[in-house]
C-alpha cells in the first residue's frame, strides 16, 4: 500500500508543480506560491473542521519534535517557487528527471546522516535508473526539437 501511495504522491507532485508553474507565470512567482499555499491551507482547514481523520491528520504536541521538523512548509515554499521559475523554461519531463536526481542524492544523504544506513546496491540502482530516465528524456527532447524544426 505504501508503494502505491508513494507513486501517487509522485504523480501529485508533478501535477501540482505543473499547475502552479502556470499560475506563477500568470501572476508572478511569489504570488503563485502564496495562492498555492493558501489553497492548501484552506483545504486542510476544511478537512480538520469536518473531523476527517484518515489516520493522517492528528494534532500533536510539539514536545519532543525536533526544531527542523517545523520547517517543512518553508521547504515546500522553496520547492514551489523554484518550480515556478524552472518549469516554464524546460519541459516537465526533464524537470521531473532533474528533481528525481536531486531527490535521489538527498535521500542517500538523509539515510546516511539520520539513519546511519547506506546501501551501495541501492545507490548504484538509483543512479542506473536516473541515467536510464535521462537517456529516454534526452531522446524525447531531441525528437521534439526535430518535430519543431521539420514542421
UniProtKB/TrEMBL annotation:
The chain crosses the membrane at residues 37-60, 67-87, 93-113, 120-137. Pfam families: DMT_YdcZ. The keyword Transmembrane applies. This is DMT family transporter. It comes from Oceanirhabdus seepicola. It comes from the Bacteria. GO terms for cellular component: plasma membrane. The keyword Transmembrane helix applies. InterPro entries: EmrE-like (IPR037185), YdcZ (IPR006750). Keywords: Membrane, Transmembrane, Transmembrane helix.
Amino acid at each position: 500500500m505504501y508503494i502505491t501511495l508513494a507513486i501517487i504522491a509522485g504523480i501529485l507532485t508533478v501535477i501540482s508543480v505543473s499547475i502552479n508553474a502556470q499560475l506563477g507565470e500568470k501572476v508572478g512567482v511569489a504570488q503563485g506560491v502564496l495562492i498555492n499555499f493558501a489553497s492548501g491551507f484552506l483545504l486542510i482547514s476544511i478537512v480538520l473542521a469536518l473531523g476527517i481523520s484518515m489516520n493522517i491528520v492528528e494534532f500533536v504536541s510539539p514536545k519532543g519534535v525536533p526544531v527542523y521538523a517545523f520547517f517543512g512548509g518553508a521547504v515546500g515554499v522553496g520547492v514551489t517557487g523554484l518550480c515556478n521559475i524552472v518549469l516554464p523554461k524546460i519541459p516537465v519531463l526533464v524537470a521531473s528527471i532533474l528533481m528525481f536526481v536531486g531527490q535521489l542524492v538527498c535521500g542517500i544523504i538523509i539515510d546516511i546522516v539520520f539513519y546511519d544506513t547506506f546501501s551501495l546496491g541501492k545507490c548504484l540502482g538509483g543512479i542506473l535508473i536516473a541515467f536510464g530516465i535521462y537517456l529516454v528524456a534526452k531522446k524525447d527532447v531531441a525528437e521534439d526539437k526535430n518535430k519543431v524544426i521539420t514542421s
